Amino acid sequence: MPMNEPTVDRRAIAEEWETARATLRRLVGSATPTDFQRPSDGTRWSNEQLLFHMVFGFMVVLRLLPLVRLFGRLPAGFGRVCARLLDAGTPVFDAINYCGSCAAATVYNRRRMTGKCDRVIAALQRKLAAEPEADFALSMHFPARWDPFFTDVMTLADVYRYPVKHFDFHAEQLTLEN
User: Fold this and answer.
1) Backbone angles phi and psi of 76, in degrees to 5
2) Mean pLDDT of all residues in the chain?
3) Scanning 33, 47, 133, 144, which has its CA 20 to 30 A from the CA of 108?
4) Are 53 and 116 in contact (CB under 8 A)?
5) pLDDT digit string (tens) for 79-92?
6) CA atoms of 66 and 156, how far apart (whole Å)
7) What does R_g of the chain's alpha carbons equal in angstroms?
8) Bridge partners, 133 (sequence order)
9) Cα–Cα distance between 20 and 103 in angstroms, integer?
10) Which of 32, 20, 28 lies closest to 109, judged by CA?
11) Is-contact 17 164, C-beta < 8 A?
């Protein structure tokens, strides 16, 4: 590959985020109050709580980016030990993840979650555009038991792609009637 050819298709990632944003707006805009309260399929969340959790996947990426940049510059063994410790705490993580999305959905509810999503994706767009090309290859170990889209080792490029995988997966669990 020529030295100047980009390794990550920033435009494709940005377009996927925009598609998710438009999907969220459509889902929230067409859901009824009954739709929001209905249980989702395969989770303990209501549709409204799950919709927030889908936005939360984008929010998490904002926090993961500096961690990948840091751990990507440290010896791999350090990150591997940290990831194993986090994996050992999966039951605690699962409880916090569930309760946190329940609580956060009371703040970032159907009236506020699209605005929050807009702001988070705008921030991610700025970070993606400014990311040094070499940094996309930085990687760290992840607690792979925490999420079906976390793998043992993820690059910064993988983390940028993560929220749409998470969003699309959970969108299939919604039980909206629209």
Assistant:
1) -60, -35
2) 94
3) 144
4) no
5) 999 999 999 999 99
6) 9
7) 17
8) none
9) 23
10) 28
11) yes
Residue 91 is encoded by which pair of tokens? 């039951």
Phi-psi group of 42: left, alpha or beta (phi > 0 → left; psi -120 to 50 → alpha; rest → beta): left
Structure tokens that stand for 79 in this block: 């990150």
What token pair was written down for 149? Answer: 């889209």
Tell me if residue 46 falls in helix, strand or coil: strand
Q: How far is residue 33 CA from its own chain's centroid?
A: 25
Q: What is the pLDDT of residue 1?
A: 44
Residue carrying structure tokens 């921030």: 123
Which position has the token pair 């940290």? 82
Contact yes or no for 178/30 (Cβ under 8 A): yes
Q: One-letter amino acid identity for 63? A: R
User: Do the Cβ atoms of 28 and 113 come closer than 8 Å?
Assistant: yes
Structure tokens at 174: 């919604």
DSSP 83-138: HHHHHHTHHHHHHHHHHHHHHHHHHS-TTTHHHHHHHHHHHHHHHHHH--GGGGG-
User: What's the pTM?
Assistant: 0.92
